[in-house]
């Protein structure tokens, strides 16, 4: 940096390199006719400019991951003579940064400000700007208060950002008010409410929510988080099990596992979604186990969700499963017709688009397994009506949602196919999985394999297992053979097509 570049931003210092008070200060330290608050702000602004430049250099030198892990949380403290204080939130971080980057920080500060010769690293938050007006008669106190308040808010914001760097943001749409309660989910809803009102209540820590896909587990977890953070006094960290694993692996690679641990264990409420993704990840399970114990022992709340109950998560370590099951376990059952109607009516009412009752009943009958898909279908209908200015009708619903409705048509099983084919050709059902190779048995078996490939979503190996643990190449040969015969033999093709229609009806 040239002298010209440094001149506009350098701190005031005397010939010896010591930071001076600047003009306007007399021997007793009293003010003599200038704005001391403005001077303090100016000094702080100068420091912030230099620190911004230093951070840019550090980021370029050490890389993004290393910088975010170790150096991003540093905040500027006061300047005392030729020494500047830098604050870090934890003792571990302070010791590590002092060992690894202490000399480099001193060199960079000295390059930016020759008057700064030493850097002192301490545990603490950013110091408010010192107010010289306090040395006077108090006339500047009205201006000083905002300065300190602003710095305090900045410090808190920085601390909060670093604290929750690992967490995913909460979705504002998922609240208790937007959650439709019915018999299948009322118990889980009540438990979630209890945790949101009184976290770490006896018998409710941990709270374990389980149920199928799209039934509302994630919605309830976001609702708990939103309710707890509304007052701003409770820190909440929400993340998926996959993200937990990913960030843990990243911490291992960057040798920052202690920082990872400290960040997670400093929150008041930890929420982990889709815990089943930790099955088979032994090291990640162990880390979660220790984090779980540390938080519970400290009286912090844990909320976990999965697709199965703790006892059915067979891939988890026994010690983890037993601890997950020692709190409140609440299941969310598959939705009933009445609950699906209630959900659709609530969403339709909120959209402002008139949706006939017969359309809602049609959707509730057709899409039964997944609330998320049910809401998606309704949103698609509403969007189509808004874009084209057309009313929502049953005919339009069938047309717009033809792909979704087709996927939810009655699913044919391999067992059904085997039974129908065996009846059609008058052979025993057991012949479908037997080793017999007579043409009277082999041909119907090949047809059944062909129809299983056409009418189900099963893979070739899965189909082969249903037919006496046959190899997937056998299934491929059967499909190719039946296709060839249908092209050559019209009567045979008609038989296969008849079986297809019977199975699909």
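^ structure tokens above, recovered residues below v
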């Amino acid at each position: 940096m040239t002298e010209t570049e440094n001149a506009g931003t350098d701190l005031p210092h005397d010939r010896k390199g010591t930071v001076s008070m600047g003009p306007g200060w007399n021997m007793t330290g009293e003010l003599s006719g200038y704005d001391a608050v403005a001077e303090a702000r100016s000094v702080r602004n100068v420091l912030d400019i230099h620190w911004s430049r230093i951070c840019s250099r550090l980021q370029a030198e050490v890389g993004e991951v290393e910088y975010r892990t170790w150096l991003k949380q540093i905040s500027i403290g006061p300047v005392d003579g030729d020494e500047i204080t830098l604050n870090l939130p934890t003792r571990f971080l302070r010791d590590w940064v002092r060992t690894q980057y202490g000399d480099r920080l001193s060199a960079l500060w000295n390059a930016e400000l020759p008057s700064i010769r030493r850097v002192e690293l301490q545990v603490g938050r950013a110091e408010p700007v010192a107010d010289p007006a306090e040395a006077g008669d108090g006339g500047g106190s009205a201006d000083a208060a905002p300065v300190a308040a602003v710095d305090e808010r900045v410090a808190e914001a920085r601390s909060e950002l670093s604290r929750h760097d690992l967490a995913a943001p909460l979705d504002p749409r998922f609240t208790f008010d937007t959650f439709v309660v019915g018999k299948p989910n009322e118990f889980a809803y009540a438990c979630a409410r209890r945790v949101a009102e009184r976290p770490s209540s006896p018998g409710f820590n941990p709270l374990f929510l389980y149920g199928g896909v799209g039934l509302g587990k994630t919605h309830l977890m976001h609702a708990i988080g939103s309710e707890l953070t509304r007052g701003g006094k409770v820190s909440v960290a929400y993340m998926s099990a996959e993200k937990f694993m990913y960030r843990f692996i990243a911490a291992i690679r960057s040798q920052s596992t202690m920082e990872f641990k400290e960040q997670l264990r400093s929150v008041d409420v930890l929420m982990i979604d889709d815990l089943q993704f930790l099955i088979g990840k032994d090291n990640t399970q162990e880390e979660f186990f220790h984090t779980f114990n540390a938080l519970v022992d400290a009286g912090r709340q844990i909320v976990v969700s999965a697709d199965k109950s703790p006892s059915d998560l067979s891939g988890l370590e026994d010690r983890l499963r037993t601890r997950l099951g020692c709190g409140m376990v609440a299941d969310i059952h598959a939705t009933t017709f009445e609950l699906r109607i209630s959900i659709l009516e609530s969403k339709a009412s909120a959209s402002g688009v008139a949706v006939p009752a017969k359309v809602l009943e049609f959707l509730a009958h057709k899409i039964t397994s997944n609330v998320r898909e049910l809401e998606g279908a309704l949103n698609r209908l509403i969007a189509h009506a808004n874009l084209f200015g057309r009313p929502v009708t049953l005919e339009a619903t069938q047309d717009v949602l033809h792909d979704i409705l087709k996927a939810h048509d009655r699913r044919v099983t391999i067992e059904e196919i085997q039974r129908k084919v065996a009846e059609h050709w008058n052979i025993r059902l057991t012949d479908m999985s037997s080793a017999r190779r007579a043409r009277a048995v082999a041909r119907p078996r090949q047809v059944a394999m062909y129809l299983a490939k056409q009418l189900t979503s099963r893979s070739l190996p899965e189909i082969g297992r249903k037919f006496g643990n046959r190899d997937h190449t056998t299934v491929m040969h059967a499909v190719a053979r039946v296709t060839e015969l249908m092209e050559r033999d019209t009567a045979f093709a008609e038989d296969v097509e008849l079986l297809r229609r019977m199975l699909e009806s």
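The chain has four domains: 3-163, 186-332, 337-407, 414-504.
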